[in-house]
Amino acid sequence: MEKIGLAWWKKALVYQIYPLSFKDSNGDGYGDLKGIVSKLDYLKDLGVDVIWLSPVYQSPMDDNGYDISDYDAIDPIFGTLEDMNNLIHETHQKKMRIIMDLVVNHTSDEHIWFKEALKSKDNPKRDYYIWADEPSDIGSVFGGSAWEYSSITNQYYFHLFSKKQPDLNWDNPELRNEIYAMINRWLNKGIDGFRLDVIDLIGKDVKNKQLSDGPYLIERLQEMNDRCFKHRDIMTVGEMPGISIEKAREFTSQKNPLLSMIFQFAHVGLDEVPGQGKWMLKKLDLLEFKEVFESLQTKLYQKGWNSLFLANHDQPRAVSRYGNLAYRKESAKMLSTVLYGMQGTPYVYQGEEIGMTGVQFKDIHQYKDIETINIYNIMKNQGFSEEMIMESIYAKGRDNSRTPFQWDDKKNAGFSTGKPWLDVNPNYIDINAAFDVKDPSGVFQYFKKLFSIRKKYDVFHEGNFIPFMKNHPELFGYYRFYGDEKVLVIGSFSNQSLEIAIPDQIQECLITNDSRVKVGNKMTIPPYYTCILKIGDELHAND
Ligand code: GLC
C-alpha cells in the first residue's frame, strides 16, 4: 500500500517508444522489439516506470502501424510473438510496466474482416464497417474525402484517416464482442494497460456528422470498461483530440473512472490559426498556453486526472516548438520543469530526455509520413509556394519526432547498421545519448533529477495549482500546495533576461537549469531560466 494511497499509474513516469525509430537490432533499418530489450537499462536509469509502445501489430504500415491487419500478430519488422512475450517479461523483471497501443476506431483494409466485408453486401463481416450509397462531405484527417468508392458492391466505405484505414462500425454488437475478446487476450498475456488511439471517435454518428465525442461515446467506454478494464490493476489512457476539458474530467472522474486518464489536446492547437487546421501557423501566445494549463489543472483537481505531455509521435519536438534552439539545453530543461511540475502522470516521448530536435529535410522525398505527403500535394495543388509548404512541414510535420533515436555519433546515430527507414537528423553528431548522458549539464541528468524530486514530494502529485505572475507574457510560474509542502515553479520563455520579484520565504532551490543565478526575492533570470523553489509559510501569492 502506498503512503498516500494513489494508484500506481498516478505517480508513474511513462515513456513512449515509437518502435520503428527506437533501436534496430538486426540491421534492416527498422527499430524492433529486440532493440527495445537492449535499451531497457537506459530507460530504467532515467527513472521510467511504464513503457508505452506505439503499435507493433501486423500492419501494411500505411500509417506506420496505426493500420492493423491482425491484432493478434506482431509485424515481422518488429519481431515475433515470442519477442513480444520476452519484452513483457524483461520489462517486468526490471520492475517496469508496459502498455500497448490499442487502435480500434479502424483497422487496415488488409484486415481479414475488411477483405470479407468488401466481397458482398450480405457478407457476415459487411456490417463491421461503415457504408453508404452516396458520400457525404466529411473530410479525412489526412486530406481529401473520408469516403472511398468500392466498385464491387457499388458503395462507399468510411475512413476518417487514410483510405487504407476503414473505420469500424461500433454500432455492431458482434464487432464489439470481438474487440473486447481481443483486448482481454492481450491483457491476459500480462501487459499493464493500453493507450487507446483516437478513442473519442468510437461513439460517432456518421449520418449526423457527429464524430468526436459522439452520442454513444459514454456507453461504449462504459461497456469496454465493464468487459475489459474494471477488475484489473491496469492503466488506460485515452487519446481524445476532440473532447473538452469538462469531458476529460467526467471520463476520469474519481468516482466512476472510465479511463485512468485522457490525452487532452487543448494546448497543442495554440500555434495554429483557429479553425484552419494544423498547417496554418500562428505564433504561440504564452498567455493562452498558460490559461489552457491552468484550466486543465484546476478543473481536474480532485475530480479527474491529467496526463502531462508536450510531444509525441504526432506532435513536433517540444524543444523546437516551444523552446529555442539557440538555448537548446536550457529550454528543454525549462519546458520539462514547467510541464512536470504540474499534477498528472508525466509522459516523455523518446529522445525528449536528451533534447532531440525537429528536422528540416530539404527534399519532400525524404519525408515518409502519409499525412505530410498528402498535405504537401494538397497545398501544391492549391497554389502555395514550395517555401511556405516546407515551412509548415518543418513546424508541424510528424516526421519531426519520428527520425531515428540518436544513440551516439557513429554511423546512423547508432540506431541501425543498415539504411534507416527514415533519415537520421544530421545533428546527431552533437546531440546523442552517449554524449548527453555523460554530460553533467546534459538534459538526461536533469530529467533524471527532476523525476526523482517529483517522486520524493507528495506536493507534485497531490498539490493544488495557483498561478504566479499570471499576466506575465514570457514567464510561466505557479505554486503547488499540499499540507506543509509548498513549491513555486518558474520557467522563462524569453530570450532576454527578466526581472522577477518573489514575495515568499524561499527555503531551498530543489532544481534549476542555472545554478549560477542567485536565488532570492528579487531575481534577474537569464533566457529560458527555470527553477523549483521550496517555500515557507509566509505566502503572498501575486498575479
Ligand atoms: C492517432 C495516432 C496517429 C494515427 C491516427 C490514426 O492520432 O496517434 O499516429 O495516425 O491516430 O490511427
What does this structure look like?
The protein is of the alpha/beta class. The protein folds into three domains: 8-109 and 168-450, Glycosidases (TIM Barrel, Alpha-Beta Barrel), CATH 3.20.20; 112-158, Oligo-1,6-glucosidase, domain 2 (Alpha-Beta Complex), CATH 3.90.400; 461-535, Golgi alpha-mannosidase II (Immunoglobulin-like, Sandwich), CATH 2.60.40.1180. It is 28% helix and 17% strand. The chain has an eight-stranded parallel sheet with strand order 11-10-9-5-2-1-13-12. The chain has a five-stranded antiparallel sheet with strand order 14-15-16-20-18. Strands 6-8-7 form a three-stranded antiparallel sheet, with no helix packed on it. Helix 11 (328-340) packs parallel to helix 15. The protein is globular and about 75 Å long.
Write the layout of secondary structure elements.
Elements: H1 8-11, E1 14-17, H2 33-37, H3 40-46, E2 50-53, E3 57-58, E4 70-74, H4 81-93, E5 97-102, H5 112-119, E6 131-132, E7 147-150, E8 155-158, H6 173-188, E9 193-196, H7 217-229, E10 235-239, H8 245-251, E11 261-263, H9 286-300, E12 307-308, H10 318-321, H11 328-340, E13 345-349, H12 370-381, H13 386-396, H14 433-438, H15 443-456, H16 459-462, E14 466-468, E15 475-482, E16 485-492, E17 498-501, E18 506-512, E19 522-525, E20 530-535
Parallel strand pairs: 1-2, 1-13, 2-5, 5-9, 9-10, 10-11, 12-13
Antiparallel strand pairs: 3-4, 6-8, 7-8, 14-15, 15-16, 16-20, 17-19, 18-20
The structure holds alpha-D-glucopyranose.
Alpha-D-glucopyranose binds at residues 63, 66, 103, 161, 197-198, 239, 313-314.
